[in-house]
Automatic annotation (TrEMBL):
Family matches, as Pfam families: bPH_2 (PF03703)
Name of the protein in question: YdbS-like PH domain-containing protein
Source organism of this protein record: Halopenitus malekzadehii
Record-linked InterPro entries: YdbS-like_PH (IPR005182)
Residue ranges of every copy of the YdbS-like PH domain listed in the record: 81-160
Key words of the record: Membrane, Transmembrane, Transmembrane helix
Lineage, top ranks: Archaea, Methanobacteriati, Methanobacteriota, Stenosarchaea group, Halobacteria
PANTHER family: TRANSMEMBRANE PROTEIN-RELATED (PTHR34473:SF3), UPF0699 TRANSMEMBRANE PROTEIN YDBS (PTHR34473)
Transmembrane segment boundaries: 33-54, 60-79
Amino acid sequence: MAADPTSDSAAESPPPDPATVTRRLDGRIRVVWILRSVLIAALLAGLTVAIGRFVETPRWLPALVGGLTLALAVPYAIVRYRRWSYAIREDALYLDRGVITRVRTVVPLVRIQHVDSRRGPVERATGLASCVVYTAGSRGADVRIPGLTPEDADDVRETLKRLAIRADGEDAV
């Protein structure tokens, strides 16, 4: 007997384990990155104007510097967003990111010291938050997951905290 083509076999399979799902950042993080690029473009254009007061430069140079900065920064922010992902597994936190240089960071759960969720002024204005994971090791040994909703940042923080406590108990001497 042939299988019924209208049956939904996906409904019969269990849902994916949330601990194995690779997650993406909220799309509003692109706005944050582009706004930072606009600020950098304005600062570079202003610096070009200031230099022009001491050195003979074409009047159009500040516009060119600012325009080129934006022309490169906007596509960069879009590609950066597409390349950013993270996954929380039973053994570690995995981060994949990078435009020119691809970086994969693996943070073993037993190395996690503490986890913060943060909301700076720009993040609050865009309704976003970030999660900062501090690890045992050298100074500055921390990783940041930007572009999360405040609820997701809290969920990531609590999940990592719970898994780190469990992992530390398993590896305790």
